[in-house]
Design brief:
CATH architecture of the largest domain: 3-Layer(aba) Sandwich
Number of domains: 3
CATH class of the largest domain: Alpha Beta
Distance between the termini: 28 Å
Order of helices and strands: EHEHEHHEEHHHHHHEEHHHH
Mean pLDDT: 88
Shape: globular
Number of helices: 14
Helix content: 40-55%
Structural class: alpha/beta
Strand order of the largest sheet: 3-2-1-4-5
CATH superfamily of the largest domain: HUPs
Length: 368
Amino acid sequence: MSKVRHVLGISGGKDSAALAIYMHTHYPEIDIEYYTCDTGKELNETYNLIDNLQVYLGKPIHKLQAFDKSFLTPFDHKLSTLGGFLPSATNRWCTKYLKLDLFEKFIGNDPVISYVGIRGDEDRTGYISGKSNIQSIFPFRQNIWSEDVMDKAFNNVNLHILIEKFDGHPTKLYSERFREELIKPVTPAYTQDLKIKKLLNIDVLEFNLLISEFLKYTNYPLASIENYPLLNNEEVLIRKDIFDILENSNVGVPQYYKPIKFEIDGMKGEYSRSRSGCFFCFYQQKIEWVWLYEQHPDLFNDAMEYEKDDSHTWSDGEKLSDLIKPERIRQIKLEYLKKSNKSKDINSPYLIDLLDDAEEEGCATCFI
């Protein structure tokens, strides 16, 4: 097998930036290649974060662009080839053509470990490539392994392999309690998720060592790596830890996460952007569109330009020109205040996305 490459995608958001800092600080022995996929439609704050991060890491962040020889931005170039057909939640061509295809072209057929910044307080799987030469690792979670690896390792067909590795390992690291759970086959009552959770709660290091031994029976990139340092990782990092990493490193938190005060009908509140991504991302909440209109009116006007064709709108069937009418802005802010008062985190200086705190939700997210 060719030398395994280690790669980490920078979206310009908090989680991927914090992961780059975390890996650089805790695992300097891993030679990580950093990259970012630029659509040409990011906020300036996103580009500023990438520049700051590049200085901190002391190595380049490869800036990947589709159609980089065009006089148009990558997004506008692809849009022109599609006859002006805009992306949407049901047709996310921006994700495929401007990010995922670009990422897979960047790595080619080399064996690759891709580090993904899904946190320990998130319940989602993230992007899993269909290519066998790409393996995802999640350093912020208790379970650093991807769902495809778990499906293979804990398939009852392979249970004998796990037991054989358990019983034959020369370090005798494994406990009997761990073995009692390990030998149980997965059933509708004893699900794979439940089994994994119990094993991890007994001992994370035992779990990681067992999976690494199992991987030697596969073609995953980690099958060829000895002494992989993340096998000893027991940390679980949550949202607060991410902001702490960014602040303590002096890389800084992207400005769009920082709340801005507003007042409506005598009530005071705060709003911000909750994720990275294109400034016109169709996954934005209504309040984020209001934030864009009030904080970056030039970009909001650019987004409206794409809505000239009445057959498409960015925001759930509501034209942006209607969304910014004074009474509609008032309604959006009042609705947002009601939600935020119910779920406000008084211990955090940063607002929480009330719908989903997963940055880059629309971008599939090997890049977070």
